[in-house]
Amino acid sequence: MDGIIKQIEKGKPFFEKISRNSYLGAVRDGFLTAMPAILFSSIFILIAAVPEIFGYQWPEAVSTWLWKVYNYSMGVVGLLVSATTARCLADSMNRRLPKNKVINTTSVMLASVVSFLLLSVSPIEGGFSTEYMGTKGLLASFVAAFLTVNLYKFCVLKDITIKMPKEVPGTISQTFRDIFPFSFSVFAAVLIDLGIRQIFQISFAEAIITVLQPLFTAADGYLGIAIIWGAMALFWFVGVHGPSIVEPAIAAIIYANVETNLQLFNSGEQASKVLTVGLGNFVGTMGGTGATLVVPFIFLLFAKSKQLKAVGKASFIPVSFAVNEPLLFAAPMILNPYFFIPFLLTPVVNVCLFKFFVDVLGMNSFMYVLPWATPAPIGLVLGTGMGVLAFVLAAVLIVVDFLIYLPFCKAYDAVLVEQEAQKAEVIATEEGASAAIREEVPVAARQIISDTNKEINVLVLCAGAGTSAMLANALKEGASESKAPISAMAGAYGSHYEMLQDFDMVVLAPQVNSYYDDIKEDTDRLGIKLVATKGAEYIGLTRDPEKAVQFILNQFQ
Known about the structure:
- The chain is mainly α.
- The chain has 3 domains: 73-215, no CATH class; 235-423, no CATH class; 441-554, Response regulator (Rossmann fold, 3-Layer(aba) Sandwich), CATH 3.40.50.
- Helices cover 63% and strands 5% of the residues.
- It contains 24 helices and 6 strands.
- The strands form 2 sheets. A 4-stranded parallel sheet has the order 4-3-5-6, with helices on both faces. A two-stranded antiparallel sheet has the order 1-2.
- α3 runs antiparallel to α4 (60-71).
- The longest helix has 36 residues, at 388-423.
- It is globular.
- The relative contact order is 0.08.
């Protein structure tokens, strides 16, 4: 087993390179930026649809208004994502372009929107069709964004622009400077639209879905979903944030299928599309990547090792809300041979069980988008329409995951018990932190505080702002107790670019360490300190507010 893990670990640099790809990052960050609109619309659809499950019908005027809000937000999500993806990709490219040659991010967003409309919208009598402006048009939105940004980059590097006299104000000069790249982007979309309509007699957005439909169908099968969520777990096991690699490739279809399922349900049919956002959030990654929801409770109830008891106590709350880094790094589960099989197997079994319930037993699949931090059993029940089978499946998944993880947890526990007996070390503390991962910082906080007058603004970054919130909260608590001049904020990597200038220090959680070189370009330019943390070190900081404060202050000695 150790040999297998070592071989897998050798591929880590390659996986990290993929996760740092500018285009995958733009898709990920574009969705993250547009997520408020997606979640906002989901609130209204839940209000509109859930009461009907219990036999309550909203008055027609209320129902119409609720669906109107949904259609005017989720119904144009393709349009929104075309703009946000273009913006994120342009920001990424600007960090690599010469300082005097940068892409105008506002202009590129507008050009991407126009290009997307040309690729997705068809004229109809009295206006135009909106069918592909929502989730069905997401693939077209990516194409529009990538095409637009690259044409802008070409024009900027080649200095293809209208040069104005020096006397002309900068804002006016910038307007003329963007005419050529804007025009090229729109004309490129026009040419693609004309070519596709000439060949297929349909829009580009519809054509690309038609062409890729066999691939989407295959991905919706048992083998497809097993590979997808097995790959996520495999990447995470070697320390690479798996969703950053896998999710951008399936982002379009998992959101489109949610809308399709809702349409099927509203028409009286079964919501049968399995490959959805909820499948990942509440089934495949139940309790975080690796489907680790049951693991902290196994540690608490069955482990004899003081270390695992402490880890269970410290991690069961965050894991319940899908933040499982305290578990992954404190147990540890990452690169731990004892957890290799259950970490990969459990997500695969979960998604296959879900598909069985949908395909064979007739349960509805996910038709609503819920926040990823919703506790998995609740998200599963709500997201599928609160059917009886959903409650049954939630219970089945918990039992099955428990049975898969239990023997491996007990085997690892036995090893730790033996080690603890031999070394006579007390690893757990009253607070649930593991002494094995606690490192003393040599300088006392009060001593440093006396030499520090300026308030230190700290930004903690992780993939989804869940793990980073743990350290940010520890810093706030520690600063309040010790009167240290520190303020902290949690953020998600990809949505941090606009606020970097407001901070003095950035701390990277272990899951985003692979982005260190990318963000360092920005922090060096702005004169901001950047620190990357390791798994055990990070978890230790989150569990000890005083130590977290010391860690930050020591960076400014």
